[in-house]
Amino acid sequence: MYNQKRIYRVFQLINFLKASPPKSCRNLAGMLEISERSVYRYLDLLSEIGFPVIKDENGRYLIESGIGELTAPFTEQEIDFLMKMLYSVGNDNHLSQSIVQKISGYSEVQVGTNHVFKAHLARIIDDLTKAILNRKQVILKNYFSANSQSISDRVVEPFCFTDNYTSLSAFEPESMENKYFNIERISAVEILSREWEFEDRHEFYKPDVFGFQSKDLGKIIEMNLSLRACLLLKEEYPMSRLFIERLPDSNLYRFKTKVQDFKAPGRFVLGFPGEVEVIGSNEFLEYLNQIRSMKFDAEQPDLASDMLK
How far apart are CA 260 and CA 208, in angstroms? Predict the structure, then answer.
């Protein structure tokens, strides 16, 4: 039983790290319900089995999309054929044995993580669907908030899903606001006996590419991205793909869209110094300048106090 739980945690950790945004050790410890010291041991284990974990400039961890996956989608028959060819070379060939181990590891670990993750998401969607049909409040257990970088239980009234079941639209009584909750960031769902209390406040608006909802997406952002920034923007915010185009005769990409709030795009821009050039709007540029100014002031020592010493 202990080994089964340990293996399951490895699968969970791989999927938590692949799902954006990057997460701190404390966040991962809360999501896995283990100590931070144990998280570090699991991170070392992932590196040993071929899942290189990246630590970003903020000390948060991630596995880049595509890591641990073959670039060509081999079928089971193709993997079996490759294994037979490699075995025919003989056991004395160290290169062939290395390739055999990698193919075996891929087929077992990748299939296992996909099955566990898909079953986990299916169970969450099934529970939320029951709650919606029965008009019940629920607790989203250990929900990871990308905005506050925190993990907490959230009591909500769920009423619909976004396209492809990527997010849940729900009313949160504590904040008295309609919000979106990323399905992949929900650890579990507890259906309560309480029925909806605020149905008249339930409102669904199509979210912007960063997941914020509003009646009017009146704020404009426009920027040029490096290839790396472009790939990570697509990975973290998949809906952004529709608004990205490559600039001719250049390695840059243009991203332009309307948003409800500058917070998420602002965080993204500030996380990629030198790789994102903001073109507009003037309102967005002013917002970024204010954030940079506040950050600069907070980092400066109290010069007047030093002079008095």
Answer: 7
pLDDT number for residue 76: 52
- Whether residue 219 contacts residue 262, with contact meaning beta carbons closer than 8 Å, is answered with yes
pLDDT at position 95 is: 52
What total of structural domains would you count in the chain?
3
214 is a domain residue: no
Q: Which domain holds residue 239?
A: 219-299
Helix residue ranges, H only, the chain: 2-18, 25-32, 36-48, 76-89, 94-133, 227-236, 263-270, 282-299, 303-308
Distance CA 272, CA 252 (A): 14
224 shares a domain with 196: no
Same structural domain, 142 and 194? yes
**φ, ψ of residue 27 in degrees (nearest 5):** -60, -45
- Other Cβ atoms closer than 10 A to 50: 13
Strand partners, 51: none
Spatial contact of 191 and 130, defined as CB atoms under 8 Å apart: yes
What would the two tokens of residue 240 be? 């952004």
- Identity (one letter) of the amino acid at 252? L
| CATH number, domain containing residue 9 | 1.10.10.10
Q: For the segment 169-202, what is each residue's pLDDT rounded down to a tens digit?
A: 899 999 999 888 888 888 889 999 999 999 999 9
Average pLDDT over residues 216-227: 89
38 Cβ partners below 8 Å, 6+ apart?
29, 32
In this structure, the answer to whether residues 175 and 227 fall within a common structural domain is no
